[in-house]
Every structure is written in C-alpha cells, then in structure tokens.
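Async update (no meeting this week)

Hi team, since we skipped the sync, here's where things stand on the single-chain job. The sequence we agreed to prioritize is pasted below, unchanged from the tracker. I ran it this morning and attached the output directly underneath so nobody has to dig for it. Comments welcome in thread, and please keep replies under the output.
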Amino acid sequence: MKAKDVSLLAIVVAIVWVALLFAAKGLIPVFFAGKTFGLDAKEIIASGAFFVIACSPVYRSIWLDKRLGLKVEGGEAEPSGESAGAGK
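Output:
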C-alpha cells in the first residue's frame, strides 16, 4: 500500500473510533440508568488524533518535521537544518 492510502485508512479508522466513543459516552447514561462513561471528550479526541499521527506515515513525518524539527528520510529521523545548527 502507498503511504497516502495507509494515511487515509488511519484517518477513517480514527473517525470511526471517535464516533463510537462519543456514541458510547452519549448512550451509556441512557441505557444504564445514570452510569457515566469514563473518558472525557478531550481524551476521546486526543486518542483519535494520536491514532492518526501514530499510524499514518504521511502525517507522522509532517508532525515530526513541524513539532520536533526532524526530517524523516529513508526510515530514520534526522535533525533538520534549523535544529542541527542550534547546538553548535
């Protein structure tokens, strides 16, 4: 599979994951007489975002480049020009 296809699949799975967790959060109090669902909305969204970043090669390389200043080439992360010169 191509990286774009894997990334698209990861996004679709994350959307389904978040939708199911929000459905559970909304329906558990209705069907189980006031019981609460253990995850907060922020935690549900963060788990979906983590899934996309961790499981999609396209967005993982973008995230590493933007947040950490690392470039991924050939499967290994290397510091980019901006971060590499900062320590000298």
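Quick observations from my side:
The two ends are 40 Å apart (CA to CA).
The CA atoms of residues 7 and 56 lie 4 Å apart.
Reply here if anything looks off.
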